[in-house]
Design brief:
The protein has two domains: about 60 residues, 2,3-Dihydroxybiphenyl 1,2-Dioxygenase, domain 1; about 60 residues, 2,3-Dihydroxybiphenyl 1,2-Dioxygenase, domain 1, CATH 3.10.180. It is an alpha/beta fold. The protein is built from two helices and eight strands, in the order E-H-E-E-E-E-H-E-E-E. It has a four-stranded mixed sheet, covered by helices on one side. Strands 5-8-7-6 form a four-stranded mixed sheet, with no helix packed on it. The longest helix has 11 residues.
């Protein structure tokens, strides 16, 4: 019945800057766009961005005030997480593009984890998973 996560929605008041960040820095591609006029005024502009089969939907409202995400820990969904193949290489790549690591990296036996921010200040986790040693290896 349930197949997969279809998409994650991000509400932004910086649609062009956010789209550039997700496509030019993180490597998403624009999958589709939509514009919806809402009854009673205001409109939504949508950009669907794909990375490896996962879609991020950037939503921007026209003529509607939207409050920012809480700055402190809170109940509910927390952040988007991207898997990286090499944390050090990802950090260097991002630094070259003016994107700093805002937390971490922290290295644990099974993974390395760090966080960056998108143009709205929303946190994005970077996660590198380590393969367990093969049975009978020197690390076993």
């Amino acid at each position: 019945m349930f197949k997969r996560i279809d998409h994650v929605e991000i509400v932004t008041d910086r649609p062009a800057e956010s789209e550039r960040f997700y496509t030019e820095v993180l490597g998403f591609r624009v999958r589709a766009r939509d514009h919806i006029d809402r009854p009673g005024g205001g409109a939504l502009d949508l950009a669907y961005l794909d990375l490896g089969g996962t879609t991020v939907e950037l939503i921007s409202y026209q003529g509607v005030a939207v409050a920012p995400e809480p700055e402190r820990e809170h109940l509910g969904y927390r952040m988007l997480a991207l898997e990286v193949s090499d944390m050090s290489a990802a950090a260097a790549y991002l630094k070259e593009r003016g994107v700093g690591i805002v937390w971490g990296p922290v290295v644990r036996p099974a993974y390395a984890r760090a966080e960056i921010c998108d143009p709205n200040g929303f946190r994005i986790e970077l996660r590198q998973w380590f393969e367990p040693p093969a049975p009978g290896s020197a690390d076993d």
